[in-house]
C-alpha cells in the first residue's frame, strides 16, 4: 500500500486511504478509518 502519493489534509484523503485498506483486504481498518460521527 503506497500512501506516499496522498496529499492534503485528513478530510480530503480519508476516503482514498480507506480504499487503500479495502484493496489490501483489511476491511475492518477501512471501516474504522472511514467512520464519521
Helix content: 55-70%
Question: Total strand count, please?
Answer: 0
Roughly what fraction of the amino acids lie in strands? under 5%
Category from helices, strands and their pairing = mainly alpha
Q: Helix and strand succession?
A: HH
- N- and C-termini, Cα separation: 26 Å
Please count the helical segments.
Answer: 2
Describe this structure in words.
The chain has helices at 10-23, 27-34. It is mostly helical and 37 residues long. It has one domain. Helix 1 (10-23) runs antiparallel to helix 2. The mean pLDDT is 85. InterPro entries: PAB.
Fold topology:
Elements: H1 10-23, H2 27-34
Helix pairs in contact: 1-2
InterPro entries: PAB
Which terms summarize this structure?
mainly alpha, flat, 37 residues, PAB, 2 helices
Please summarize what this structure is.
The protein has 37 residues and is mostly helical. The chain has helices at residues 10-23, 27-34.
